[in-house]
């Protein structure tokens, strides 16, 4: 079942900042920090799980299993990327039902043609808006829990222009989407226009080095946005840290001399992974002879 606190936060007009999670370590770290929502990124999850590009290679089976594991581990509600719904209308129905049953609190569906691509990369094409409207109507009908939120994303801005992207955003909101996600606006002025034009909670996708300017939370709220996701912040930082540590090891032959901030600390990692509970269990059930 969906975590009702996420819908309650939107209903209360609370601005939400959601970090991207992409594996179980990032989920555990982010879950303990007090965010109102976590965002399960497709790019990062596909990269960490399969080691390939987010280009429509991952299947529904790949993703629902991973997303469900995130939800089992986290107390914080999760919005999860579900690409195009992994096929036609029947696939969308099963995707919504599967993500909801897995414990996800919100699903993101997009209007790209299959195979899809990451939203801040070139070469994306979109299906007719009317086809996406049908997908969203199926998604709305398929959910069982009213607290389960549907995020409708359009990638039309890059190939068809801002006006068409806004038109689609309105259509998708009218079709029942709870949150509208216009991918890849390229200026703050475009984001202002989106906020002015669509009367639905809006999602801002903040990708470091991507197409969209990263605005402060206060500014996003001021221009009409309700949630900002940071899908890449975690895996970009982890990749940079790994490269620094591995480079040091290659150069020096050991990890001596690494700055303290380059290590999470083994003891702290044991705590994060739940080893204290394991140790207590072992003490309780140790043989006394």
From TrEMBL:
<dbReference type="InterPro" id="IPR015813">
    <property type="entry name" value="Pyrv/PenolPyrv_kinase-like_dom"/>
</dbReference>
<dbReference type="InterPro" id="IPR040442">
    <property type="entry name" value="Pyrv_kinase-like_dom_sf"/>
</dbReference>
<keyword id="KW-0456">Lyase</keyword>
<dbReference type="Pfam" id="PF13714">
    <property type="entry name" value="PEP_mutase"/>
</dbReference>
<protein>
    <submittedName>
        <fullName>Isocitrate lyase/PEP mutase family protein</fullName>
    </submittedName>
</protein>
<dbReference type="GO" id="GO:0016829">
    <property type="term" value="F:lyase activity"/>
</dbReference>
<dbReference type="InterPro" id="IPR039556">
    <property type="entry name" value="ICL/PEPM"/>
</dbReference>
